[in-house]
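Re-running CBPC6 carboxypeptidase to confirm reproducibility after the cluster update. Everything else is unchanged from the original entry.
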Amino acid sequence: PPSAAANLRPGAEQKVVFITARVHPGETPSSFVCQGIIDFLVSQHPIAKVLRDHLVFKIAPMLNPDGVYLGNYRCSLMGFDLNRHWANPSPWAHPTLHGVKQLIIEMYNNPKINLEFYIDIHAHSTMMNGFMYGNIFEDEERFQRQAVLPKLLCQNAEDFSYSSTSFNRDAVKAGTGRRFLGGLLNDTSYCYTLEVSFYSYIVAGTTTAVPYTEEAYMKLGRNVARTFLDYYRLNSLVERPLAPTPKTR
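Result of re-run:
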């Protein structure tokens, strides 16, 4: 239709979703979740087509490739925890972080680009299920709007827990992507850390722990991607008439 791929027309205003993963090398589940997002977005699924027509997705699937190569758990080749250096990354000590931050700032300064979401994918060694960390804002309305995406994701993914999702401004996390970009971007941008358990999840209404598999992590990624359609339908960017949506998760 004429409205298709409107976000790619020259001079068109772009709504951007920026996703990063694997800033901590040992958190391998984050790569599978990110893979699920990518696989879904480039698929021929009708929801994926609608998302591509209306949004631009920027994805950096591995922020710490040297740490992954070396088998480090948390640090880079230079011994830095990259997720504590977003405020002032060095081009030689934290090159991937520096490059991604520069790209985000360029988009932020471009009046034709709205950077609406930033999601950094991690894995958690003690908590169960998938859940999110968000920021705390003095503006109550902005704080409430920030809760919409994780609430919608909770409806789409049986392994995502909204009760484990929290919003904080812990000083220890000041150098993380979520905290730094949450303070940099304007009040229409929402920044999250998406965490997923290393080992298992509990489906709501049950007490049985279900072990995570590679496929289950990728399924969570697919559900994250699908949730953007629900979010933008609420905000009237996407019209409701659409190809039938499968009822399965």
